[in-house]
Putative circularly permuted ATP-grasp superfamily protein
Amino acid sequence: MRLEAWTKAYAPLPGIPDEFVDADGRSRPHWRRMLAAFAAFDQSELRQRFAAADRRIRNRGLSYRVVGEKDERVWPMGRLPLLITEAEWRRIAQGVAQRAELLERVLADVYGGGSLIASGALPAAAVTGSVDYLPSMHGVTPPGGRGLRLYAVDIGRGPDGDWWALGDRTQAPSGCGYALENRLVVSQVFSDLYSQLNVQRLAPFFRSLGAGLKSGGQRSEPRIAILSPGPMSLTYSEQAYLARYLGFLLVEGDDLVMREGRVFVRTIAGLKRCDVIWRHVDADWCDPLELNASSRIGVPGMLEAIRQGGVSVENMPGTGFIESRAMLAFLPALARGLLGEDLMMPNTATWWCGQPQERERVLDEFDSISIAPAFGNALPGMKGRSSVIGEELSPRERARLRDAIAARGMDYVGQEVVRLSTTPRWVEDGIEPRPFVLRVYCAATPDGWRVMPGGFCRISDQLDARAVSMGQGVESADVWVLAENPVEASSLLPSADSVRITRLLGNLPSRAADNLFWFGRYLERTEATLRVVRCLAARSVDPDAPVRVGRQALDRLMGVLVGWGAVDAAALKDGAAEASAQGLRDSVHYGSALSLARSARAAASVIRERLTNKTWELIGRLETVINPSPGRRLSAGEVVDLTEEGLTVIAALSGLFDENFNRGAGWVFYVMGRCVERGANTCRLLRQFAGADATDQTLGVMLDLIDSQITYSSRYLVGVALAPVRDMALLDPFNPRSVVFQVNRIDEGIATLPVLRRDGILEEPRRLTTALRADLDTERAEMLDDARILAIEQRLLLLANAIAARYFLHGAGQGRAEKITGLA
């Protein structure tokens, strides 16, 4: 009944091809099979499965960013996949592979012999008019012989029902990682249906893509890196996922350096050769020496390294000019000239106005065709628009645009107006047709071109869509290519004898070490602030607290929050309860628990590819737990509850790191960050609550803050005393919250890290920890005073600076002693 209701109410748009309903108005069998399976679920179970998909998306940290927005959005994935039969996909794949081969030959000619331009088959201005054409790459033979390693094309059904190419993607095609993420989510939620419909797997494609990238290197085991613009990139989540899935390094421009015609990764062990770079940075930003001088995300000297054959960059810088709409006008003829055959998948009909005859045709048909920029995405003279149809313009706009085309036609193209075909989209408890665009990927492999059996589908919520990009109201969908026979399971696992066993994780990039270190520090700061806030709020709830605890302890707890930048000093007049609430979640103050949790998340976002999905989920949950109801005033009791929940999340995070994070260099830096911060904070708290003027109440607060009340009570039968408290907080090597415990862990961690000096002299971080450890081992609690405690705190901060100076990146203009440690 439900299936019949869905299909009966489904109304394709007049004259628009649809995936569910064919040209004769009949529903396609493979779609009916899938929808029948959906209809077999009762409404509650279907909602549960959809909720499970949403939960998996959140847990995996799947997100994207819209241009101009600071915060990421949760990935919008549709409920229904796009279905394509194997027979139809075979034709699509042939057309895409043919197109990829054609563009590869065009690139080879444009940057090589130049016969196409010399013969007039391709006007020079149609190439050089694009900012993505790079004359500096002329005459450069790409390592491995290919300029394209990953090609993508946006396709849709044309008016005749066949698939048409809407636009080529050769610069740095995005979306294949999101396509894989979509598949993982949907296949888990509807695993039974996924198997029944014989959906072709994606893993073999990514295995072939990895083999193709590897073939571009000059060594048998090349080091491959994904070059990212950084965490503010619109698709950073995808880049991090691809790095984790494929086992590649995720790097930014500052991570790489060019030396002697080769590119190296800055690691904690010195410079290590980088053989292949899969760039997700537009070519113009790749090399500030030869291209855009304002770039801070590129690698100075990268193009020179490419010219010298020292690094393989995929796709080659300069391939982006293929994406211009001007090129679409010439591809049909180029296919006949270079391949000796017509395009299997035709373009949208395009006329480049840089040619007199085509310009006149566009002006004659001005009202009925789409006018678009020949190069780039912004239509000259039409602010904020990427394309227009003449009849939709005002008389003044029409006249201005016609004059612009007549004066400088090379900047414009005319295109046939394309109405996107539609596919079923789940809306409440039913289906409705919505326009979509499908991006298909093709990888150059040692065995030729290989097309991903699926793709990245974007579905609009608007009925009349001429372009679909990820933004408000657009969702993505998994793409199922339905095989005629059962599909064997596949994975990225190589053969057992093709991998050399090793127990080292490789060399940690300096940027990753830096952010792991600071993630640990921010996490520890968050915990320390939560403990102070909890202590203050708990005592403000007790009406006898001022008598039992003493006003001195409450004032000093509030003073600590002011000193740590968590609370405004002016707010102290409102009392301990208000101060504790502000210290918990005031987003204005950099030292509040909420601000510190956000800083921890920002540091973690840069190393997302090194974190498990559960770890990333907990990092995001910390902020939510601390501030579940923004804007609502909190009571002191609620503050206590929220701090307890926040500390529980941090404990879970600590457990995940301790139990699941491999004890390599990355883990060492995370631990050192936490230890440095915990040791310094303990020294600060000791000077406030266990100083020369300490009372039994302030000493009790000190034991609370270092979570040592039970241990102290079991060890000392008498009440709290100054020397034993100082010993437990500072010198006790068995107390995991003591300062000496932190120093010992830092020293043990540094001992495991690689060294650059081979002369037997200790490097500065190891020298400082060795000296500090020895001094603390011989220190006596009875001899401690505020000055000596302050000196220990300062030595810990000096140690943190020495770790940063030795292992982390510095500004591009700052001198840095670096050592190339061979080709490993």
